[in-house]
Amino acid sequence: MPEGPIIVILKEEVDALHLVGKKVLRISGTNTIDDDRIIGQKVLAIKTYGKNFLICFEYFTLRVHLMMFGTYAINQRKETKLQLSLQFEDAELNFYTTSLKIIDEDLDDVYDWKSDIMAEAWDPKAALKKIQAKPKALAADVILDQNIFTGAGNIIKNEVLYRVKIHPLSRVGAIPVEKLKELIKEVRNYSFDFLKWKKAKVLTKNFKIYEHKPGDDKIKGWVKEPLGKGKRITYYNPETQIKYE
DNA sequence: GGGCTTGTTACTGT
DNA sequence: TACAGTAACAAGCC
């Protein structure tokens, strides 16, 4: 269930519980993290970094990553195997199928907030620099690169490339700088559309190319292919998306 | 029931 | 040694 905007929604829901200053009273679940370190700790802040959900305590941070199939439930439980339950005096946070990690370092030393597509600190100039440093990379791979666009995922990749009319197999070094800037801007723009639409439960309705299906012939000549490093499914329209190479 | 998928990491081999 | 490529892992939907 991830991609940056969804983690922002998770944070908003957790913020509504006003956990800052509250202590973790109990922990349960199948996780292998050290319960004793967390029990009794006071929450200092709730943050997000791309697809990472962060619960900050005094001496460390608990990082929750939902990976591909992770889910959560607030003040209720699901049928499936409970991985981590953090219980507070009057609230409960439950996570399923996540990747958990304790971060001992200062977050500012570990994360570059400027690369988080959802963050206030987002800096398009930094993204441009990083892209220009790897001219041979493909447009499809660059958007998924978490060091450049922290929080972008496969949906964002497909929709953004379609919007800016760039072929996924374009070499970024061949894309004119102004066009690259447009791409970078649109990653941010679309992510906020994603956030808005997800909240209104109309995200999938607004997919322009992602999950395009046969018979759904609004886009003539569209294709679906596994492309790029991770061979992630890519939907695109070779007739309108220009291949820079 | 097999084949997919909003993701990442640890291996492998060149 | 660095890198690209692959396997592995997870759960739920069709």
How would you describe what is shown here?
28% of the residues lie in helices and 19% in strands. The chain has 245 residues and is of the alpha+beta class. It folds into two domains: 4-110, MutM-like, N-terminal (N-terminal domain of MutM-like DNA repair proteins), CATH 3.20.190.10; 113-236, Helicase, Ruva Protein, domain 3, CATH 1.10.8. The radius of gyration is 20 Å and the shape is globular. The relative contact order is 0.14. It binds a DNA duplex (14 and 14 nucleotides) through helix 6.
Topology (SSEs and partners):
Blueprint: H1 4-15, E1 26-28, H2 35-38, E2 45-49, E3 52-56, E4 61-65, E5 71-74, E6 84-87, E7 92-96, E8 99-103, H3 107-110, H4 124-132, H5 139-144, H6 154-163, H7 177-199, E9 223-227, E10 232-236
Antiparallel strand pairs: 1-6, 2-3, 3-4, 4-8, 5-7, 6-7, 9-10
The chain binds a DNA duplex (14 and 14 nucleotides) through residues 1-3, 6, 51, 65-71, 80-81, 96-99, 144, 146, 153-156, 210, 229-233.
Could you tell me the CATH topology label of the largest domain: Helicase, Ruva Protein, domain 3
The N- and C-terminal alpha carbons lie at a distance of 34 Å
- The CATH architecture assignment of the largest domain turns out to be Orthogonal Bundle
* Largest beta-sheet characterization: 4 strands, antiparallel
Provide the helix percentage: 25-40%
- H/E element order: HEHEEEEEEEHHHHHEE
Helical element count? 7
Average pLDDT, rounded to a whole number, is 93
Low-confidence stretches: none
* Strand numbers in spatial order across the main sheet: 1-6-7-5
Shape: globular
The total strand number stands at 10
Rg over C-alpha atoms, rounded to the nearest angstrom: 20 Å
Structural class: alpha+beta
In the CATH hierarchy, what is the class of the largest domain? Answer: Mainly Alpha
Strand content range? 15-25%
Number of domains: 2
